[in-house]
Structure prediction request, 672 residues.
Amino acid sequence: MADVREGGSVLITCDWKGEELAKHLPVQFKKQAAQKKIHLYAIDSTAIAQELGLGSRTNTILQAAFFKITKVIPIEKAEQYMKEAIKKTYGNKGDKIVNMNYAAVEKGIELVQEIPVPEEWAKLTDVPSAVDGKLPKWIRNIQIPVNKMEGDKIPVSEFADAADGTMPAGTSKYEKRGIAVNVPVWDSSKCVQCNQCSYVCPHAAIRPFLVTADETAKAPQGFKVAKAKGSGMEAYQFSIQNAVLDCTGCGSCAKVCPAKALTMEPLDNHLADEVGFEYAIALPAKKNPLGVNTVKGSQFEQPLLEFPGACPGCGETPYAKLLTQLFGDRMYIATATGCSQVWATSFPSFPYTTNKKGQGPAVGGSLFENNAEFGMGIYLAAQRQRMSLLEDTQALIAKTADSKVKAAAEAWVNAYDDAEASKLTGATYKEILAACKASGEEGELVAKILGEADQLTKKSIWFFGGDGWAYDIGYGGLDHVIASGADVNIMVFDTEVYSNTGGQASKATPTGAVAEFAAAGKRTKKKDLGMMAMSYGDVYVAQVAMGANQSQFLKAVLEAESYHGPSIIIAYAPCINHGLRCGMSDVQGEIKRAVEVGYWQLYRYNPLLIEKGKNPFQLDSKEPAGDFQAFLKGEVRYSSLERSFPEEAVKLFAKTEKEAKARYAKYQALAK
Ligand code: SF4
Ligand code: SF4
Ligand code: MG
Prediction:
């Protein structure tokens, strides 16, 4: 509001009308609106878009409303120009889409309404924010002003803590954007406690909790529980809680729920549900009775990636989130410029967070073209630091006469390369060193080791990036890393297109798909990155697709991480650039269909099996069945080719199907 001029106009999109809208406007806003004699307008663009079949696309409606209220050009002209632009942009997507957008223009003009601004609002008394003082300094002095578009008023001195380019972790939880129209509501009586809703949630908003009877008794009103099912769970009750103000309303959780235990209902009726979530996350962490080797068990671990800035229904973040649930407390991540960096590091918010002990992923971002090299640098630095700790420990073992210190140090040396064992023995070793009374040279050694203690636990090193990075621009570096034998893990979010820069074709784009730089459909087949990696023989390689097989993804991740060499996981991740007919709420369903028809294949190549005399290649997806062509036509990136180049479409779709089948046959032969 500070930037609106006297007599200016403000357009709000919301479903409140008249007095109800006035009730929801902040006092500060109303006061300034009256003082500056602002013209206030409102429109329910979300409802209009849904009614017209545009899903969540409200931009055309709002643009039309903008022209109506600003009168920068005569509204008849604006309508004509907008419709001409629509015809030009969407003409090849069919009359239905063109007409929907025409209707969006008409409704935007027709339904925008002026809201009276009473003069008495100018005399309202400001209500100072009661919570501000309790928030962390970064949130108060940087995040809130930046989100209010007042970042240019922050003095440089406020950034002293960030002068080295770092930002605090776990700040996305303070944003509370409240952008969902509908949020999931849990029916405890129908729930089978599978935790799939949590597994697929791109924003870590919905989570299962195990609570004791005492905790349930003290819970806020409306906190729903059911008796926890499964062995080892007898002492607990089970509860699904949703952070409704961090939920995007994508509906993925409700779509995937096998028991129809989640229904999407208006956020307005469920604002109080946030209290239940806040209560549940503040409870003491419980030892996971199921462990992390099952989909259900993995979800009782705290996600150390929460409320990222990803699109509703994002296909990438559920993969990344699971990794943080398994390894987040000892994880280093190098992330390539692209979506995986943008949803994670959109200043000033940061969604990677820490557990109750303050441990969480350390994340660094690099340019598109050198993320593998950047990650390799992180790996080499961590390896050098750990080697130095090992050398100091060996020197201490040789020097000390303290049997307790010696035993703890030896136990840690033996566990050096085992992540979980090094964590456990490292904790004991650190405790014993902190309590020992060594002096002189031995005392100096002990102090040095304690100073390096954050390297006692073996680190889990990951490189994140999309296909634009891994298949294309960063491939040279990636190839160098997988050929090096380094104990690192590479996660490729394969959206088959440069997602973040507007959908340009990459070498992962299959034949026939329409993308930027491939307007007439891509002519060449998708590169087989997995096969190229497998040719080394000592690289762990997996192709996964969460919606098709949740356990296969979990297995691949556990195998890749524990493999003492390079690992690469290629994950199928649909995105808004694909133009899914089913909408982004059914991303998991679309992934499943992709695997069923043989568009995408699942496999794991584990070099450890060679040593056991077994075939290292395991094909995890079934023989393709179903209509491959119908699958293609369910995505605008393919179906649009039918309209613009119908004859080419027939040829290219047949070619892409043939290529996918040949790929499956090749994998089948490898699995024999
Ligand atoms: Fe998560 Fe989407 Fe469900 Fe919200 S609607 S809880 S963001 S899956
Ligand atoms: Fe319960 Fe459905 Fe979630 Fe499974 S997916 S835990 S049945 S709400
Ligand atoms: Mg991509």
Notes: The mean pLDDT is 93.
